[in-house]
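Hey,
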Amino acid sequence: MKKILYIAETTDNNLPQLFFEKFQKHCLFKFIILNDDSLDLTKLDQKYDLIFLRNAYRPHLFKKKIQTIIKKLSTNDSPIIDGVESWENYVQHLDKWYHYQILGEEFFPFSTKSRLVAFKQIDQYVAKKPRSSRSKGVYIDLDNKKVYKGCMFQKKIDIDKEMRIIYCNDQVLEKGVYKRSKKTDQTRVKVQEAFSLDEKLIRYTQAIMSKYKKSLNFSSKNLFGLDIALDKKGDLFLIEINRSPIVQTYYDKTKINVFEKLFI
């Protein structure tokens, strides 16, 4: 039976169905929950078959805890999914501007942090927070040319379809899901249906992750969700890379259990 340590900000919808029901015969799980007041560091002294340190949604609220965990993990020889080695490395996986600097316009739409560039044609850009890749809460004052601190501007593209692709253990999974990309206060991004990836999309995703891996040097045990858009001209664009994708809805649509590929 495999022994696995799962570290996350909170328990979430992935856990009941995808962990306990499917894996209780194969795996023994221990948990460290960042949102808990108590932090049982003795769990980090034990040896595991795998350790999964998921990205926190609000990492800077738990910075000291995460730094302590990473420091303790550096003395533990257990394999860590994605191979997070430092707070800087942990944050780099979250930073979409850092991703753009690595991958550039070969994959992303043109992006900039320069207000001088973006404000000349502001109607052609979307403003995003580099960590969350979301525009909610970004305030732009056109008259005084002021904007949310640290904001990045990304050239708008005429999206025909937006897709979530899963990359697991250095492999592009054969199924993806279409997403409805419009976000409002009432509706979050919703998964519409599953589809089979064609060769063009597989090669495009492999090219992204090959270049990404050279910069971040993550391990062969890994999990990433890529949001890729197909524009109305038929061109592909990377929207974002997510190191800790929510896989419950992916499982619901595709019946592919990503955690089974990771843990069993």
